[in-house]
DNA sequence: AGGACCGGGATCTGCCATATTT
DNA sequence: AAATATGGCAGATCCCGGTCCT
């Protein structure tokens, strides 16, 4: 096994000499020291045979406007390759409507892209086009995340992924959303994706669910990020929810594929930290455990809110006399930014809005609707 | 008509560590 | 040993408006 590369190098060394291939290749392929020693010293370049960088490659990249320094730092190996396809890749992408700047940015951020053959790119592109209707969409995803497109060269795996996701019953629309939102999903190995689906199915079964596939599908289509999370992360979050909410199995199952689905992919530390601070804050305010549970159940996204943000939001609401009870009843108001909430509270106070009497739902509305409401409230009462 | 209820949209990559291949 | 492939991680909301309900 280990001898194979050496032999290959030896052969290509001879090829290079006898057929007069370019000098670069000679220098690059004679790297193994032992083999080089079989050649007389005078045949060797005077410099030690450390892989030099391909200079025409550097020139090309510079010409293309690639941030060579950044690229080099990212994937130095690419720069020592004897053959790269930067021209082909650039031409290909240009043909798909990517501008020079985008191409340069893509290569700067994921240099390995230039090791892909044009043929391979063509195939991969077609596979993506099964899901996207225009080239422009693909270009924009690529520009956003070059790594998602280029990290793996396994087109067969991509094909299998698409087939697998379809087999779960995900619609083409779901696939489109999935590839747009979390493109990395498609460069996961199918095995990894299958493991997650299997894991979700197991969770469902453990909780007494009768339709594990439907559950997995529901979770994926409602939380497009789930397949790019680790099983460990999702499992830990489910365990945390399980132990802190103490729901009946069937309720937990419904929660997980309903509104609770959004918090499954939160980082574990984050859930823990945010849960603790919410718990602490509410306990301090005299809330019961049941209130805390109710809040999380009706508005799971509360766990997304960091400690200080949550504190500010609650404080500015409480400061104008709104009670924790009211917030627990209408938690959606926490959805809005601190700035938005404080601004609206001021406006409402100006017109003498009575939160006790009229409730706080007014805070949960679009800017347009809110302004219309304020205008009505501040208009002189007419008969 | 007006408010409540509810779900969706934007966006979430870029880096590091380890495994695998060459 | 070097390069590539793959898995995993951290970070932590905000806003809009359709539709239903009264």
From TrEMBL:
GO biological process: termination of mitochondrial transcription
A matching Pfam family: mTERF
Protein location: Mitochondrion
InterPro entries per the UniProt record, alphabetical: MTERF
Alphabetical keyword list: Mitochondrion, Transcription, Transcription regulation, Transcription termination, Transit peptide
Superkingdom of source: Eukaryota
One annotated GO molecular function: nucleic acid binding
GO CC, alphabetical: mitochondrial matrix
Family, per entry: Belongs to the mTERF family.
Database matches in PANTHER family: TRANSCRIPTION TERMINATION FACTOR 1, MITOCHONDRIAL (PTHR15437:SF2), TRANSCRIPTION TERMINATION FACTOR, MITOCHONDRIAL (PTHR15437)
Complexes and interactors: Monomer.
Name of the protein in question: Transcription termination factor 1, mitochondrial
Organism of provenance: Solea senegalensis (Senegalese sole)
Source organism phylogeny: Eukaryota, Metazoa, Chordata, Craniata, Vertebrata
């Amino acid at each position: 096994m280990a001898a194979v590369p050496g032999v290959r190098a030896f052969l290509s060394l001879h090829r290079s000499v006898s057929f007069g291939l370019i000098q670069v290749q000679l220098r690059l392929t004679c790297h193994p020291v032992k083999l080089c020693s079989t050649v007389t010293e005078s045949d060797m370049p005077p410099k030690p045979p450390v892989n030099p960088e391909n200079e025409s490659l550097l020139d090309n990249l510079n010409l293309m406007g690639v941030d060579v320094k950044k690229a080099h730092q990212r994937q130095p190996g690419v720069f020592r390759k004897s053959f790269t396809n930067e021209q082909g890749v650039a031409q290909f992408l240009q043909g798909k409507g990517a501008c020079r700047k985008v191409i340069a940015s893509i290569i700067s951020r994921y240099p390995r892209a230039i090791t892909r053959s044009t043929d391979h790119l063509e195939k991969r592109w077609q596979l993506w086009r099964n899901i996207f209707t225009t080239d422009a969409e693909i270009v924009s995803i690529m520009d956003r995340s070059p790594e998602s497109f280029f990290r793996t060269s396994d087109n067969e795996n991509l094909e299998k992924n698409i087939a697998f996701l379809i087999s779960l019953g995900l619609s083409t629309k779901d696939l489109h959303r999935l590839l747009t939102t979390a493109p990395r999903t498609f460069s996961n190995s199918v095995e990894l994706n299958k493991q997650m689906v299997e894991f979700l199915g197991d969770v469902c079964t453990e909780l007494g669910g009768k339709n594990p596939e439907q559950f997995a599908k529901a979770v994926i289509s409602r939380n497009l990020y789930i397949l790019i999370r680790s099983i460990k992360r999702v499992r830990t979050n489910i365990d945390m929810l399980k132990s802190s909410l103490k729901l009946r199995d069937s309720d937990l199952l419904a929660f997980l594929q309903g509104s609770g689905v959004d918090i499954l992919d939160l980082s574990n530390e984050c859930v823990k930290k945010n849960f603790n601070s919410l718990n602490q804050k509410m306990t301090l305010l005299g809330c019961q455990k049941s209130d805390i549970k109710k809040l999380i159940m009706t508005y799971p996204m509360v766990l997304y809110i960091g400690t200080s943000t949550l504190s500010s939001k609650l404080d500015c609401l409480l400061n104008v006399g709104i009670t924790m009870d009211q917030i627990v009843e209408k938690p959606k108001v926490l959805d809005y930014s601190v700035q938005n909430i404080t601004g609206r509270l001021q406006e409402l106070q100006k017109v003498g809005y009575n939160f006790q009497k009229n409730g706080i739902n007014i805070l949960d509305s679009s800017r347009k609707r809110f302004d219309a409401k304020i205008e009505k409230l501040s208009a002189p009462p007419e008969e």
